[in-house]
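Schema walk-through. Below, the input block comes first and the output block second. Nothing else is stored per chain. Lengths vary across the set, and this one has 124 residues.
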Amino acid sequence: MTGISGFPVWTAAAAIAWAAAVGSAQAVTPYDGPWQVTITTVRGACSSGVGFGLQIRDGVVHGYSSDFYVGGRVSRSGTVHVSVSSGQQRASGGGRLRGYSGYGDWRGVGTQGFCSGYWSASRG
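--- output ---
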């Protein structure tokens, strides 16, 4: 699933599931802040090994690109739920953050059909 500017939509989906502490004592989750995410495709013709950055603010996941829409949440316990879209391409993912890392899975539909895989994340 490649986004409008060649940015893999599912990358954002998976990426969405990860953030870190910004240093605000009033943050909704201990995971607020910047995260680096890597997406791996297991099924389908989507790109794999793509890395990107995300931000979590007050438990809400935000992407760094205007080429796709990212919506998601991270609970105080670290559970992640996210969805990403760009044009007709859509993906969703879920997983868990713990301390300075995270992991989960994603699935979606892109220009070449169904794709799925897993993501991993680290703070910073």
